[in-house]
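Can you make up a polypeptide sequence alongside its tokenized fold?
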Amino acid sequence: MTEDAPLLSARGLVREFTSRGGGPLARRRVLRAVDGVDLDVRAGETLALVGESGSGKSTTARLAARLLDPTEGTVSYQGEDVTRLTGAALHHFRSQVQVVFQDPFSSLNPRHTVERIVTAPLRYQRRPVPGGARAFTRALMERVGLNPDHSGRHPAQFSGGQAQRIGIARALAVGPRIVVCDEAVSALDVSVQARVINLLRRLQREEGLGYLFIAHDLAVVRQIADRVAVLHHGRVVESGDRDSLFAAPRHAYTRTLLAAVPRIRPEWEAARRARAAERAAATPPEEESR
């Protein structure tokens, strides 16, 4: 595998769902939610998969992480087809490709403490917790900007942004190389979004992580993505590096998405972003965790 080869690749991904209408004589309907998707994610880069609701983004994310099996096509990790892995081999793959979900409160067990949540992937993998559960959790909490003294708290005792940081800590626990962020900031306030995006960027720089970043908000995509793939009715209709795609979109659907982004006076937007960046830089991690 060469240095610039993708860590994670998908080729010809198809996922169909079958549904039955009402009544005993109703025919089964086949919905093709993902229709021939190709994508690559490299170490240290962010591929954003964008599209409107129902375009197949989250289904593609789950296929890439092997949370769903494809109807057709393959998923490869470091050049190896992982589509039909089972048992220990599948466990290993999932330790390398972790997911951060959209709603942190839905993905965190409300009855468990942060310590139990963060160490759960290691227990699932039947791996020892380095240094013990308490010390391990405290170190990860500090790393994602949370107060380590709160490792005994439950999810309901945290804000939405803090809960999402717990989800990120849980994803990091097994040392992944790819993180799938499925609308990971869409449920957060704008100021909190900025802090979480800054956290994701820092972790990417430190660990060389590759991100598959699922989003519908193109303003967020512009902040974090290196490359962008536009999904429409389950198909990638356009892809390319972020700046080129935003500057000169080729497909009509991409132009429609960009036209829907609210626009304000550029000087106001520049000043707003500068103030937000100053606030984020001036806010110590422990202050947000209070």
Remarks:
- The chain is about 40% helix and 25% strand.
- Residues 190-207 form the longest helix (18 residues).
